Amino acid sequence: MNKKEFSEIISLIQIAYNKQYLKEEIEVMYDLLKDFEYNTLKIAIKRLIATSRYVPNVSQIISEYKQIKRDEGYNKILKARELGNIKTNEELDKAMKWLDKGIVPDWLDKDLQEMPMSENELENLQKEFEEILNN
Question: Is the same domain home to 35 and 89?
Answer without folding.
Answer: no
